[in-house]
Amino acid sequence: MGKKDFAVTLKAHPSKEKKPEGKKSMKEAAGLKKRLVEIYTRLYEEYGFQKCFLNHESAFQLLVATILSAQCTDNTVNIVTEELFRHFSTPEEFAKAELSQIEHLVHKCGYYRAKARHIKEASIKICGEFDGRLPSTMEELITLPGVGRKTANVVLADAFGLPGLPVDTHVIRLSNLIGLVKTQDPVKIEEILCNAFPEERKGELGELSHLLIIHGRKCCVARRPACERCVIKELCRNCLCKEKKEKHHVPETKIP
Ligand code: SF4
Q: Which of 231, 238, 250 to mutate to test the pocket of ligand 1 (most atoms within 8 A of CB)?
């Protein structure tokens, strides 16, 4: 993928339009950037590189798996797609498939009627408008039925290796808990974290999402975060460790 494509993808992000920053906000932005990079570094050291949690052999298969993953575990999606992709694998095959057969194959994922319809309609559109090839820009991807920014970002980051930050429930919960953002709006969270991440490392945004997700599964679990053994406790605003509050100082950076 050439530099031009990167530029197009980045330009598509709404955050790029407005940036009134005085001296104070620039200092705050620098503080947030420093914290975010340190959090990324520590999580990467703890968990290592995280490959995409959804099994796939093509960008299109990842799109299908991501559509199926809404309100469904990755394990279930991987079980379902193993069988599904034996029957249909390409946009052409899904476009020609009977809707009832797709529904039958994906029913374990929940909301199977809507998901099957989205997969079939997206396949028809890919065949009709994109020569049977999955597009690789945010603007084009979100025109496909059933594809929002989160799904598009998964495909951009994990299939095309382009900048893209999928914001799922773990990323929403953790970024608020840690104190990186103060909003439940996934588009705003994407915008804040993307802006705070170093320009020259935007290609690692997908990995940032993976690391927050794995941390949310293995340590910062919703019911009882394991703050005592958390590798980012010194950087977290909501660490429950008493000793952390006494020993460490979390730099005050204003949350946008
Ligand atoms: S310190 Fe506690 S609340 Fe903060 S990220 Fe770690 S586990 Fe979660």
A: 238
